[in-house]
Amino acid sequence: MLWLDCPRCGRRPIDEFTFGGERRAVSESITDVDERDFDEVWIFDNPDGVTTERWFHAFGCRRWLTARRDTSTDTVVGVS
Amino acid sequence: MTGVQTAAGAIEAGIVLSAVGGRVSAMAAHAGVRLPVRTHPLHAFVTDDYAQGFGPIFASTELSCYVSQTERGQMLIGAEFDSQPSYSRQSSFAALRSYSYKMTRLLPFLRDLRILRTWAGICDISADFSPIMGATGVDGFVITTGWGTWGFKAIPAGGEGMAELIATGRPPALIAPFSLDRFRLDHVLADQGSAGTR
């Protein structure tokens, strides 16, 4: 992956962005409050396929964006 | 856990050790274990032969890159892994350019060599950039993973520690701090800088 389409700045080199981690909901099956915090902070789904994640345009508009990316090929599917 | 199912049939075991590299999240999920691990590609390349012998493995934790000479005389160069996790093994020109820039800053004589071959592999990286060794919370299932950063430098000692854990049921002092529950106990290891790849 070499480029990312920032909704505000347009197509920019990936070096301008900082990876912000996967974005997912903690499973409903985890009910304990501390367990939910632990899962959110430390556990990664780390999927091989399309995933939703946050990126920060550090050397651009300095705003966060949400990207859908296919981790099996490291290609962006969509940005919002 | 009492054994594993393989393509060649079932294998019974008193203790099952997962020592896979690259797809540990999927492997651990078979046992219902979720890990603080992400999988990132790491690029590397070799140059053509450098006539002089180059003895040491040379690494910069400041620039995050390393070089060693293979037995055939090629200079093997690697650097930091991609910032975003993925399972892609496509090596990129951007990585090649970045690694070359860093390495020729450190060792200018490398400018005269040509890049012979380049590749990318995938590494399991833990949330604190240190390996994870020991119990998983599932009876009879132990794990050694997160070696994407310390890899070749510490794996032999890690293997001996895991063997002792399996034989005695207790982690030896050397690997005890690397247990999976350190994340839950707020005892994460702040050794990111020592890895040399990040």
SSE map:
The complex is a heterodimer of chains A (80) and B (198).
Chain A: E1 3-6, E2 10-13, E3 18-22, H1 33-42, E4 50-56, E5 64-70, E6 75-79
Antiparallel strand pairs in A: 1-2, 3-4, 4-5, 5-6
Chain B: E1 3-6, E2 9-12, E3 16-18, H1 24-29, E4 37-49, E5 58-60, E6 65-69, E7 74-79, H2 93-106, E8 115-126, E9 132-135, E10 141-145, H3 151-168
Parallel strand pairs in B: 3-10
Antiparallel strand pairs in B: 1-2, 4-7, 4-8, 5-6, 6-7, 9-10
Give a short summary of the structure.
Chain A is built from one helix and six strands, in the order βββαβββ. Chain A has one helix at 33-42; strands at residues 3-6, 10-13, 18-22, 50-56, 64-70, 75-79. The two termini of chain B are 35 Å apart.
Rg of chain B, alpha carbons: 19 Å
Indicate the overall shape of chain A.
elongated
| Tally of separate helices of chain B | 3
The helix-strand sequence of chain A is EEEHEEE
Helix content of chain B: 10-25%
The amount of beta strand of chain B, in percent, is 25-35%
Strand content of chain A: 35-45%
Q: Overall pLDDT of chain B, averaged? A: 90
Query: What is the largest interface, and how many residues per chain?
Result: A-B, 21 and 23 residues
- Please tell me how large the radius of gyration of chain A is: 14 Å
Largest sheet of chain A: 4 strands, antiparallel
Count of distinct strands of chain A: 6
Class based on secondary structure composition and strand pairing of chain A: mainly beta
Summed up, the helix count of chain A is 1
Counting helices, strands and paired strands, the structural category of chain B is alpha+beta
